[in-house]
Write a structure and sequence with these properties.
This protein is mainly alpha-helical and 134 residues long. The chain has a single domain, classed as Arc Repressor Mutant, subunit A (Orthogonal Bundle). The protein is built from 5 helices and 2 strands.
Length: 134
């Protein structure tokens, strides 16, 4: 079935992993994170290392190692996590990235731009701390 909006698997793993780590009282290893997110251990490890490189996480090796937030959860937005994995969100206006349109008016109006703005607004307004249970 077709979807208008969907996150990449990598972005989904990143966002969910960050909330899991933010919620944990101790560091979480990649095995626990991959089990909770349903991702392969190798894919989760690759994404988590990217988040370490981007400065969101600290990682420790070894039997008691794992990942912990480097920044307080209240200071990390979902947009920051998304863009760390996917790159800066593009404000494209054409849904198919056509440089030249054969019509005088876009058949899609500016719905792509509106959807991108709404997505950016939502993702930038949500911090990890808002998803942490009491």
């Amino acid at each position: 079935m077709s979807k208008i909006i969907s996150l990449s698997e990598a972005a989904s793993i990143a966002v969910h992993s960050m909330v899991l780590i933010a919620s944990a009282r101790e560091s979480l290893n990649v095995i626990k994170i991959s089990e909770r997110t349903g991702a392969s251990k190798h894919h989760a490890a690759k994404i988590l290392q990217r988040l370490v490189k981007e400065g969101f996480l600290n990682s420790n090796r070894g039997p008691s190692g794992g990942f912990m937030l480097r920044i307080p959860a209240a200071n990390i937005t979902l947009l920051q996590v998304y863009e760390a994995i996917e790159g800066k969100l593009d404000e494209a206006t054409c849904p198919v990235d056509n440089p030249v349109c054969s019509f005088k008016k876009c058949l899609m109006g500016n719905i792509v731009s509106k959807m991108t703005q709404e997505f950016r607004k939502y993702m930038s307004s949500q911090t990890l701390s808002e998803f942490i249970g009491d």
